[in-house]
Fold these 2 entries.
Entry 1:
Amino acid sequence: MDVFEALASALSWSTVGWVCLGTLYGLIFGIIPGLTAMLAVIILIPVTYSMAPVTGISMLVGVYIGSISGGLVAAILLGMPGTPSSITTALDGFALTRQGQAGRALGIGITSNLVGCLIGWFFLVLGAPLIANFAVNFGPVEYVSVVIFGLTVVISLSGDSLPKGALMAAFGLMLSTIGIDPINGMARNTLGLSFLEGGISFVPALIGLFVVAQVFNELKNMNAAHIIPQTSVSRVVMTWREMRESAGNFLRSALIGVFIGILPGVGASLSTFVSYDQAKKASKNPETFGKGNIQGIVASETTNNAGIGGALIPLLSLGIPGDAITAALLGGLQIHGIEPGPLLASEHPELISGVFIYFLIATVCMYLTMILIGARVFPIVLRVRKSFLMPLVLVFSLIGCYNISYSITDVWVSFLFGIMGFFLSRHGYPLVPLVITIVLGSMFEKQLRTALLLTKGSLLPFVTTPVSMLFLILSAFSVYYALRQRSGQRGVHTP
Amino acid sequence: MKTADYVIMSSILAIAAIFSLTETVQTGLAPRADLLGSDGLPRALAILTFLCCAWAIGDSIFRGKRGGGPGAGHTAVTAMRLELVSFGIFLYLLGFVKIGFCVSTFTFIAALTLYLESFARRHVPAAVAFALTTTGLCHYSFKFFNLLVPDALLF
């Protein structure tokens, strides 16, 4: 049976219906700040129990695609990224909204979602076994180098003040050390408080810094009754010229999304920051990033969605989840009595064919829903007076925080980070480096100390292992290029 | 550098000092095989934080006022609004743990909406209706999506 016959045999109209429903459900979760993709998948897993395995898993993949794609709505329209992967979308997307181009910003983001999904799908279908083998060879030494490379983006995302950006990065790394030592398992920096033993979870911190703090920012000026100014929704589709100009960015960002997405445990957040940073470095006008440059939205959203295909590669090829959401999908497979692993393709070929074809269907469903309805309706629907919108946003985001680990501590953390984020951003301290290091800090320490245990304290393997050396060289280039760009901009601005 | 910068840096350095001086529970006499141990990284980060603060202060002195941020002084009205809203959120969080989600959400939405609406537009029945509708929407949508809310302790 050839590939097309296998794909055709996997197609069932009832499953198409369920996948579309799952995609819409995921979009709702993605759109509301505080409700994450992982929550959406976890809540739906028990519902899929009564379905056939192909239907259930394909529906969960649809939820995954919808929820990742939906994150751009709040990021662009309200400046409140509900997920780490939408932070960099908000930088340029919200700036465009402020300029009355909300519809255009949404259209660019949605098209980037489509392109990212398609390129991720391409790698998933054609290159899964090869790419998965590459990912499996990553050990702690390589992971440390990848994270160091990711941390170099702090330089270009530090806004006007590099020292303040570095300070925020160091502060974020410090906060990530609160909780249980990843190697010794002992409580550390908890000050004897039991609720700190779980550490500072990054989603409540993110919601506090970018949602609650943004609410406070909007409340500073109640003379403007709406967050979203009058905006045109007649032009939402990307023009051919914009697509041609973005072609290189699409491809680069998608490759970053796929190849970082396949690394188990790293996740989409890192790939988004790296992709945004690389787009800024490749741009002829890097100073326009953060002020409404569409390439920032293209980089961020393409990477997000390409990372979905990337995260599914190790799951379907080797049974290793690429991120937290695919870890939940793994649970979904096991509920149907399917053991993920290297033999999955040979034992359940219909499942693999089904995921391939319904991934595509979910992508098309997401694109059509968002471009025909979402991009035209949301800027109007969300143009509600602040006095009505802000209480709603706060309630949903705080309840979303609670549902991460059903702990009231997360809600209080979010509130405190909101106050902190408001004061920090008010005085010119960039929040993106803080979030990056909170997200990457605990993984960095765990991998670093594991690597040092394996190398018996030697740092030599970091420079003798080919992949590690490659990422360290890339990190050095990234730092050099970013510093050169900053001094070039300073030369332009300084009289 | 502004006073606020010194306050922020002092706060961060204080946290760094607390973390670097905190004693971790030792796991016996085994040497630190991973070079760092439990407190290696926090101490290194404390030093890094101190260096970043010194860098920021030095950058400000040698390059003049840079990256000061938009933090112009708030008007008294704005400051009071932000303080009241923060206090309102604080009470709300206490409320839905102590009293219950629906009552506290209704009160929070109604009170915050009324407060934020300009005096000319302050329409109590509309705000109450909005709060009721929204609370109901939240309650039923959370049930539909299986989202949990904290159980009330009822003191």
Note: Chain A is about 75% helix and 0% strand.
Entry 2:
Amino acid sequence: MNYLHHIGAYFLMLREVFKKPQKWKVFWEMLFREIDDLGLKSLGITAFISFFVGGVVSIQTALSVESPFIPKYLIGFATMRSVVLEFAPTFISIILAGKVGSFITSSIGTMRVTEQIDALEIMGINSINYLVLPKVIAALFFYPILLAIAMFLGILGGWVAGLITELFFTEDYLFGVQLDFNPYIIKYSFIKLVVFAFVIVTIPAYHGHKVEGGALEVGRASTKAVVWTSVVIILLNYFLTQMLLG
Amino acid sequence: MLEVKDIYKSFGDFPVLKGISTFFEKGKTSMVIGQSGSGKTVLVKCMLGLFEPDSGIISYDNRIFKDLDENERREIRQEIGMVFQGSALYDSLTVEENVMFPLKMFTNKTRAEMIDRANVVLNRVNLVDKNHLFPSELSGGMKKRVAIARAIVMNPKYLFCDEPNSGLDPKTSIVIDNLIKEITQEFDIITVINSHDMNSVMEIGDKIVFLKNGIKAWEGSKDNIFETDNEAIVDFVYSSNLYKKIKQAHLKGL
């Protein structure tokens, strides 16, 4: 019953999120701030992880295909497929759920326990719309850019790993990357990420907005938000894969 | 006039307010006092519209809050200034931006006009040259001044203060009390202060509403406190030896 209550409350929150902003000028200001906080500040970690994950995938694949009967271009093919289909959208989303999710819950939660949200509401401001909508739009707008960067760096990381370890040749790798290219997998990856971006913002925002108590409760809410966001991403990943590729 | 009539509010099976009725007038500093858990915060939150009362009427100059639609309620909220116990300043905004925030949300003033207005109210609360500091760089007293400046920047008709002296030293408390009193008279607004600080009550309380266990146990002026025989308020006020002595001196006509 408790879960049902939270699911209901979450959807009621979403109804408030998607109301018209009270002042567009303020909304645009908030949006650019959120793009910086949620997007640009995640660029470094996204690039770092993508590059090295791409490298690890190519090395692991290269070590698994030592048989002379398996062509070396398979390494590029497998790296590209793994990075585009799974590592870039899902792995990056899980990392962002931890980084951005805890930031959202703790910042909104702290505003709640220090009465800053009450101050907004007393002024007649819809606090959920004011605080959450710019975050949602910022994530929906910027995370696809992060995904494109993550895909590129993942594939680049795989190639650089090959150069360093000399496990495969550049020509084979690049041939494999382009082999049997189907643009739909890029589309699939972007669809997944847009859904995950929405979840990465709204679940932590819900947990932050309903915090009651003090610093300890804010900490607990952040942990809970990260766990639930990750669980929902994993479940949605399964269903979206089934729906879009199955 | 701000009126509350027969307000009841419960949380689950636990009744917190049991039929509170009173009124607050323009240009007067009214204090809602009582022990912790007496229901004063819930009463103020009901007046502010943060809690919906189970029954009863809250009327802002004959506008009955529960009968208003969302837009009309928003209009009333824009006539309210609120000073929170912990100041509730926005951490990511500077002093100037905090004060300008309501102007930005609800007016079409240019940035220059907003800065001018912010400077006027910051000067009024005697806070100069702090415009570009963040709340974390201010003392408790300064934060309260910024909170008061933000509360009056839109020229409110109603000013609510929740424990405005909480966490302040006695000297700064008196400064903040006097500032609230002066602003109330200068702007001719209805000020309601939620407090259990008897120094404040005796310093600036034009009207005092005493709550006990969710019931209005007494109301009157600070001078009436010395004459009343009401056991509840006498118990509350004279729990301090200092006030016992003041009362004895008052009765002796000293």
Note: The interface with chain A takes residues 48-50, 73-75, 77-78, 80, 82, 84-86, 88-91, 102, 104-106, 160 of chain B (CB under 8 Å).
